[in-house]
Amino acid sequence: MKKILLTLFSLALFSLNAFADDKADVLALFDKYINDANSYSTNLPNYYTNNAKIIRVVNKKTGGQKAVVIPFDRYLKELKGHSTLAKTVGYKNRYVNRNITKIDKDYKISATRIPRNDKTGLSCYFIFTKQGNAWKIREESMTTNVQTFLSAK
Known about the structure:
This protein has helices at residues 2-38, 72-89, and strands spanning 48-59, 65-70, 93-103, 106-115, 122-131, 134-144. The chain is of the alpha+beta class. It starts with a helix and ends in a 9-residue tail after the last strand.
């Protein structure tokens, strides 16, 4: 009986350590992603799963919000095209009030995104899923005031 309890305790402890390691890995990857995004790295697409879901929640000028799903291939093209302009003007995002939660086998990081020259933050979240031995972003949602997303195709 003693051996069974010791074995069960060891398995539980191992599971908790694996959970803590995964959580730490996802948080470290998120920090690396932010650094790469703010330095306009060309490897940003490598952080995402194929066909990741990209959502922009637009604060409409007329009031309210509208969620717009951006096709992943379009997102990648715009990411590449807009990075030169963003780098020229020094556009960067800060992420504060981070919160990480486990959702089934994935992790969701919710935060407040503070764009360059913005006084108030905008909500965002990233859902990370494990592919092989690597964590990847499978869904990203950011609130924005950019109205052009409303006409996204």
